[in-house]
Write a structure and sequence with these properties.
Layout: H1 2-10, E1 17-19, H2 27-37, E2 43-45, H3 50-62, E3 65-68, H4 74-85, E4 89-94, H5 111-114, E5 115-119, H6 125-132, E6 137-140, H7 155-176, E7 181-185, H8 189-192, H9 211-216, H10 220-239, E8 243-248, E9 250-252, H11 263-272, E10 278-280, E11 283-287, H12 288-300, E12 306-310, E13 313-315, H13 317-327, E14 337-339, H14 349-352, H15 361-374
Parallel strand pairs: 1-2, 3-4, 3-6, 4-5, 6-7, 7-8, 8-12, 9-11, 10-14
Antiparallel strand pairs: 11-13
Helix pairs in contact: 4-12, 6-7, 7-10
Family: Belongs to the NAD(P)-dependent epimerase/dehydratase family. Dihydroflavonol-4-reductase subfamily.
Protein name: Cinnamoyl-CoA reductase
Pfam families: Epimerase
Amino acid sequence: MFQVLCAVAEEGLPLRKLSLQCCKGYGYHGISRLLRKCNHLHYLDLEGTDFLNDQRKMATATAKKVCVTGAGGFVASWLVKLLLSKGYIVHGTVRKPGDEKYAHLMKFEGASEKLKLFNADLLSYESIYSAIVGCSAVFHVACPVPALATTFQNPEVEMVEPAVKGTSNVLEASLQAKVERVVYVSSSTAIILNPNLPNDKVIDESYWSDKEYCRKTKEWYPFSKMKAEELALDFAERTGIDLVRICPTVVLGPILQSTSLNATSLFLLNLLKGCEPVENKLKWIIDVRDLADALLLAYEKIEAEGRYICTSCPAKPKDLVEELKSEYPNYNYPTKFIEVDYYIRLSSEKLQRLGWSYRPLKETLIDSVESYKEAGLL
């Protein structure tokens, strides 16, 4: 019944009378989502809604418990750190909880009491459900394949299908566990890879990448993120689950782990090591800590809904090199750049309306370099 009411409200049909009894089991975020869409509501029946008091008591005890998939990754590690600092109890999914590459997680303040790592495979529904059950929110950050996976014989089977299946399992488990909200990390590449995008407009959350273009150019990682996000959107529309999607651009910033560097950190590290030639193509940057802030905001702000681009400023690799040189003049920077005629305008105005802000690019670069030095990578 709840899903039917959501569908009616989504279509703008005149839902004039509503009894909250039909919303039993869907939590405050779900009920709030429905009420925000009921533009024609004249009468709200509160009779028999003692269950809301029970939910409030349950929320007091469990609302601080959340799940982060792929907890050992670059973005997820910062999110786990932030959540712990805010008092949340965190269930983190990893491949092998005892692996040394996850040791940094247990060093976070509060981790010994509030962080539990689960041995969970995104492609195994049962293992994902065991990590999610009892949580009030799920942050789906993990992707079962790396962004630089280039050796696949059949990318659609080996890369795209696992990303879609993993997302499906997380959403189904979240629905069955009755979490209040799922915050899903997509990518700006699910928005901007389209040859028909207008050059004279700011690209907002309404745009999508072109599937056939991605296939033709063999952009399999963006293709997988787009397919997974489409599945998530369809799932939310069918089931009424409260879903918020965040689409970050190129994520830079200090690392918390010294092993298994992600693609964007490796890109910046290679600039510091003089790897060349470099494709001098415009990139939109976001600091990993600002992205973590955005993810938490997407959960905590009841009014958050839909899709959000998360970015701060544009820069070309040559610009980054010049910025780095001003602070660290002694590194062996690249001198050969291949110019690429590419320009796109993005905006995080929608996210900023939730109260989100970002730090200066220079701070991101300096903190990144210092973390590489501390990790022994420079």
